[in-house]
Amino acid sequence: MLSPRDVANFAALCGQIGDELANESGFVAIRDLLVRFHTQILIRPLLVEGMLASIVDRRSGEGNAHRWTVLIDSETYPVTEADIAQETSNHPLPARLRNTVVHELVHSLVFRPSEFGIKLQLAAGSAENKHDLVRSIEQVTESLSPLLLLPEKALSKRLRGRSTQVSVEELDALREELAISRPLLISRLAQLSANQGAEMRDLPALRNMGIGIGEWTRDGTAVLRSWPLYINFENNIAPAIFRKLRHQDRVPAVSVFPDTAFAMMGGTDYTAQFVSDAGLLDNPASEKIPVVCAISKTRKSIGSAFIYVMRRPSSAGGINSLENIRKKFGNR
Questions:
Q1: I need a labelling partner for 50 at 20 to 30 A (CA). Which of 7, 282, 283, 312 fits?
Q2: Which helix (H) or strand (E) holds 223?
Q3: 152 close to 196: Cβ distance less than 8 angstroms
């Protein structure tokens, strides 16, 4: 199994590579990652979206050399190798393809850590340990991929030096500009408490707020997904819905929000204000706090996803105050 130290070393490596390859806006091109990982890409019909292969080159003058290759399914991703070579931030590859390639690149680390200066804490010659290692790297791959595609450089540029909380519109703009998926974006933010970007979590832009993914249903309302979640409220007093999502997926919006005009409830408003039960993990309804929730302005097509931001307003007065929201919706 990978030790916590191994995971930390892989995370530091991926974070370093992401920052090194990012352009001024924070965009990381897939072709640059392939070069950095000494890996080629082949687009062929496959039975899976992507896979990692090691091709033995017996013609090498240094013995049997391995050439690492990422194989991509041509039916899932109708792109050419020229598309990959010519990728720019203005004309990026599809976010899903980018994540698939990076996922396989991260997989390759376990087979050649010494190439990147990492020495694993693993007993040599143990087939069982090797099997556990491969299984362990699969479990952490999804936490390492965001470090390559959303480097700290990109976050720092957008979050530092501001006094206001980040908006859902800004998160959507960041996702589109860097060609990353919603889960990858939120997963990267959630990692700030565990990696070298921990102090960024304390910036005003990311405090007293939670970020997650909603999904539209057949009746025009929404459900809230249990993963991924970014949760960062003062003194860990978070709205009760975030505690519930730790144990239940696809929570119906109608069980969370009191305002029927809110889009997640079937209405047309993309922002809602309400009073929420809140508390710690072991007592999620110990108090009530004012909350504002805003969602992406997406089409309500069945199964499509969107980002939501639930925040505790910084203002103590006006329409965001607890007293005024209670007057509108009661104590719910």
A1: 7
A2: strand 222-224
A3: yes
